[in-house]
């Protein structure tokens, strides 16, 4: 994720698998105009649909080819856990939209990860949340 309203910094020159140009509502700095990435605004929600679609595309491209074109939970327990995970992600998204304290968002994301962990095995929430929150500040 990069601040699209600021100049391109040297540490931003790596080629990520998904470049998210945040703060696009503040205008795109000339350094970023030619960059191919998702134009996004946490404040207005602009670009959210494109971001969600890109994440799904990247995730689906990483699946083994025998997975086919549909993503379906294997059993009822998986479906239940995925439903709970989705609800916690929805709540986290609402907290972000309402600019609530980041602690509420982190709590919901931890719960979502716990439910995923019930399907995939243990998930190290500290590593995942550290990666998410080190990239940008939600408290502004």
Give the overall pLDDT as a whole number.
Answer: 78
Q: Strand order within the widest sheet?
A: 1-2-3
Q: List the uncertain runs.
A: none
Number of strands: 3
Structural class: mainly alpha
Which percent range describes the beta-strand content?
5-15%
What is the approximate shape?
Answer: globular
Please tell me how large the radius of gyration is. Answer: 17 Å
Main sheet specs: 3 strands, parallel
Termini gap: 16 Å
Helix % is: 40-55%
- Strand and helix order: EEEHHHH
Helical stretch tally: 4
What does this protein look like?
The protein is mainly α and 140 residues long. 47% of the residues lie in helices and 5% in strands. The protein is built from four helices and three strands. The chain has helices at 48-61, 76-97, 102-120, 125-135, and strands spanning 2-3, 20-22, 38-39. It has a three-stranded parallel β-sheet, covered by helices on one side. Helix 2 packs antiparallel against helix 3 (102-120). The chain is globular. The protein starts with a strand and ends in a 5-residue tail after the last helix. The mean pLDDT is 78.
